[in-house]
Every structure is written in C-alpha cells, then in structure tokens.
Amino acid sequence: MEAKAHLRYARISPRKVQIVCDLIRGKSVAQANAILMATPKAASELLLKLLKSAASNAENNHQMDPEKLYISQVFACPGPIIKRMRPRAQGRAYRINKRTSHITIAVAER
Q1: What are the extents of the domains in the chain?
Q2: How do residues 37-63 score in pLDDT, each as one tens digit?
C-alpha cells in the first residue's frame, strides 16, 4: 500500500527538481527530511512540504506506522510552459520559456 502526495503546476523547472529527487529516493522519511532540511536548493522546500503531506496521508488515511515509512517513488514531470517575450535589437523578440513541474511523492511501509 502506498500513500501519495502531488504538487501540480510548481513554478520550477523539472530538471532542477529532479536533482533533489535523486537525493531522497529510497530513503526513510526521517532521513529524507534531514537531507531536505540541509539542501540549499529551491526545490528542497517544495519537496519537504510535499514529503510531510505524503507522510501525513499515510498515517491518517491508510493507518501506516510513521516510523516505518520510506520513499518508494519520487519524480517530477514537466507541466505546461508559460511563454513570454523579451524585446531584442531591431524589433525582434526572443521567447522565454518559464517551465512548470508536476511533482509526485509516494511513501510505503517497510
């Protein structure tokens, strides 16, 4: 049995989130919590909040033991891209892609 938590339309590139996801995949919830608290990346704040939500879902909705939880799945998928224009020389415009992410964390009992 797995308990999941989703974060949709996060305004951060999935490539940046994936770096932090790789740090915590397969770790226990307590260990992942400590890693995220010490990681100086923007994605670590989002993942920390999402991890707490997934652990809470496991405890309250699925009656799992919070001490035995580990991260069974964590991944970031690309969301819709917000497109903006930047003025350039001679009347041209360059496109700026502001990427978004859909982040998912699943926790299970060992």
Answers
A1: 2-109
A2: 999 999 999 999 999 999 999 999 999
- Amino acid identity of residue 51, one-letter, is L
Instruction: Count Cβ neighbours within 10 Å for each residue of 32-62 and write b for 16 or more, e otherwise.
Output: bbebbeebeeebbebbbebbebbbebbeeee
Superfamily of chain region 2-109: Ribosomal protein L22/L17 (3.90.470.10)
Its pTM stands at 0.88
The CA distance from 76 to 102, in Å, is: 6
Beta-bridge partner residues of 7: 103
Give CA–CA dist 70/28, Å, rounded.
Answer: 4
Q: How many residues does the chain have?
A: 110
Phi, psi of 7 (to 5 degrees): -125, 115
Would you place residue 32 in the very low, low, confident or very high pLDDT band (cuts 50, 70, 90)?
A: very high
